[in-house]
């Protein structure tokens, strides 16, 4: 189901090559280096150095006392990664739930209670950034097309000091390649593929870096991709028992109906004003059109079969303008990063199953014979949801930092963010009469409407200070002080609701609430360099997530829910062995999640999803990242995470349930959407075919079993799954050709086993086996 709102919430070939190796080294950051590099003037080889900006400074990964894993441009392209559903499987510290392109939630280190994603509900626990700018949204992770991207970084654990709200469990950053005045670079990649049990797909991508002068350059990127469908919408009938009305879906029957088309561009202009100051304005635009659903019903309809009785589509379009200014005032580095994001999403979702289930039970919603046709008989209650959503965000950050070479180093800054989500969701039943007594909107046959504007504002001051107590021992302390505001204004209700007795009801909102928060978050870290290749560190940090308002006022749930906090205790290591041919990094940690927000639906209390602070949970875990250059031709890697996330106390839905001893989830219950074990592994071997370099690569990911809900009364244990990809390619003078196969074993992953659809019980799954060929060229 595309919307989990309101009434029902329950059950390319080679890396982008620049003219300067220095720039490539600065931008490179990889979890899986695919080639070892030779040391100068020797026959030895070692893993390439990794530079990350996770601490908002460019630093060698092995010198940063933070749990960071990343995928570089080379890794992303070698793994054939195009978008969210691709790269998320190769980030072992991240778990997720996805319902459709651009409709997903991400989690880290077991910080997940389930029930997330309601438009007017809790903010995410993981922040997402595109370059320097936050793009975090509720329930709708931007499905940024991955091409000419320098790296994707994941920072596990609370990052509230530097990255603020919604970074309570971690932060995910997509870093794009920047303009380079030193020389021209360009390239293109094309691919064609065939999805087994489905359709063909193709993609065309290109980039060009144009030096305008020795102080200015323009980088332009474009992409177009069509993904073939593989879910069949099959024939079916519905029978509404109370009215006797029968319908069928013959007008909507279609094979392979879940298609996706993604088109977009990105442009950035870099201008060195002088030796100290640089300005980089940029713009990114993307339009993603999808049809159908990404679920099937294997138990009753068959593999990759589904049944809908209405249009299913989404048109997700967004543009983001950015401005980054880098400079120096004396020895102080200055960075300003600002952005404006404008996103719109028009959609339609079949909702006929809901009417079939509730007909005769919820007369106020018009699912029996409350509404009549022109002849006085029962009107067909079949309905669908139309969505008209507009999302805007502006963010501004100004930060100052001292020299990275000083014994005492510091970063200080100010942050401002203002986001607005204007959503108009309408439950439409076309055969319901549209007279004055029935619909809140003249001429439109509505059953329910949610027309609201949500605003979230965030202001903060932050800083971190590091001091080298000795040459080996460094202490770091960080602090962020913030103010937050969340508001909701608008209308929600049924067509027969007394809220709409006076027309026009949309001019008379029945919801106008606001809540304000303030507080601070902090971080303490000690790191010790054993030698040039080994470091250990200890971190205590705190992360937070804003509170907000509930739409429904009840005697059970307060009108507002409070902030929740994560307290992180972590021991980590960064090590290299065998002349830096083996890198082994990792961390063990304990996270306490206090006063956490939980979303639930109980019709005895309210027909709307409610959010309340319910108690405490704890995660005990370990994560690691190992890469080994076994020979100059063979590189292997293994990365993973283990998370044991459980409730620390009994959860009762309300005081009446507590008094009756009705436990919703007892202490020790595993948290939902948290696989205990997640692993990824790759192996890449280089060889020659005649005089041409060639390679073969395999990539595997494992996601352990996990629950789909916190409520133990009806939750489902989602089974583990394994995905295996492979590729073989050959490289010429500036070109690469490759054959690839994704999901070789044709695995059906259970990404989400739905309980919110009481009859159809869809299982959201992954793409079947896919074969393809890619060709790319660099200039």
Overall 3D shape: globular
Strand content: over 45%
Spans of at least 5 consecutive residues with low confidence: 1-35, 38-43, 362-366, 497-504
State the total count of DSSP E strands. Answer: 44
Keywords:
779 residues; Maltoporin, Chain A; 22-stranded antiparallel barrel; 44 strands; 4% helix; globular
Descriptive account of the structure:
By secondary structure, the chain is mainly beta. The protein has one domain: Beta Barrel (Maltoporin, Chain A), CATH 2.40.170. Helices cover 4% and strands 53% of the residues. The chain is built from 6 helices and 44 strands. It has a 22-stranded antiparallel β-barrel. Strands 5-10-11-8-9 form a 5-stranded mixed sheet. It has a 3-stranded antiparallel sheet with strand order 20-43-42, with no helix packed on it. The chain is globular and about 85 Å long. The N terminus is likely disordered.
Describe, in short, the structure shown.
By secondary structure, the protein is mainly β.
Topology:
Elements: H1 21-27, E1 37-38, E2 45-46, E3 51-52, E4 59-60, E5 68-72, H2 73-78, H3 84-87, E6 94-100, E7 103-108, E8 126-130, E9 133-134, E10 149-156, H4 160-163, E11 170-176, E12 185-195, E13 200-213, E14 216-227, E15 232-233, E16 237-239, E17 246-248, E18 260-272, E19 278-291, E20 295-296, E21 305-306, E22 313-329, E23 332-350, H5 352-358, E24 384-401, E25 408-428, E26 446-468, E27 473-494, E28 511-531, E29 534-545, E30 548-549, E31 560-561, E32 564-577, E33 582-602, E34 606-629, E35 634-647, H6 655-660, E36 677-689, E37 692-703, E38 706-707, E39 717-718, E40 721-731, E41 735-742, E42 752-753, E43 763-764, E44 770-778
Parallel strand pairs: 8-11, 15-21
Antiparallel strand pairs: 1-2, 3-4, 5-10, 6-7, 8-9, 10-11, 12-13, 12-44, 13-14, 14-18, 16-17, 18-19, 19-22, 20-43, 22-23, 23-24, 24-25, 25-26, 26-27, 27-28, 28-29, 29-32, 30-31, 32-33, 33-34, 34-35, 35-36, 36-37, 37-40, 38-39, 40-41, 41-44, 42-43
